[in-house]
Amino acid sequence: MTIAYRKDWDTYFMDIAFMVSTRSRCPRRHVGAVLVQGKKLLGTAYNGAPMGVPDCSEAGCMISEQYELEIVDGVETMVKKQRCIRTIHAEQNLLLFTDRIDREGSTVYVTDEPCWTCANMLANSGVVEIVYHRSYPKDTEKVRAMMASKGIEFRRLEGYEPPRETVLGVSD
């Protein structure tokens, strides 16, 4: 008798987040997010343009450039950051399409570490844990510090391998 392999809950929900990310039409980054209460899946979302509006694959990315002061080893440097402002992030869509009552005490699984804006929104949403796979180093230090101050568990799913059919190119 052969015993079948059974995925742990973290892997199961992260696999679902990656599957959800395949709905994204963003040419720069495909992101999926799921909301889980206990072991119950309450919602899914992916990044993309608002409903009924041409998306990046149709109208091109709408890139915004911002400069941010970073201090490394006591040296101040202005760093240019680029992001697409046509796209609503997966975490934002998840918050738009789920109820606050469902988010209280819940966990968000997201394919990519949340950016600063999404982290701010998640920190105020009622979730108690955020689990991600791919890092987003542009905002990591700020996001980690805020999550720690809010008491929200914030962790990268180490050793995780996404399902092959969901792995799409990521660019910055």
TrEMBL record:
Q: Which cofactor does it need?
A: Zn(2+)
Question: Metal-binding among the record's keywords?
Answer: yes
EC number(s) given by UniProt: 3.5.4.12
Which Gene3D superfamilies does this one have? Cytidine Deaminase, domain 2 (3.40.140.10)
Question: In Gene Ontology terms, what is one molecular function of this protein?
Answer: dCMP deaminase activity
Please name one Pfam family that this protein belongs to. dCMP_cyt_deam_1
Family designation: Belongs to the cytidine and deoxycytidylate deaminase family.
Can you say what this protein is called? dCMP deaminase
Please spell out the taxonomic lineage of the organism that makes this protein: Bacteria, Bacillati, Bacillota, Bacilli, Bacillales
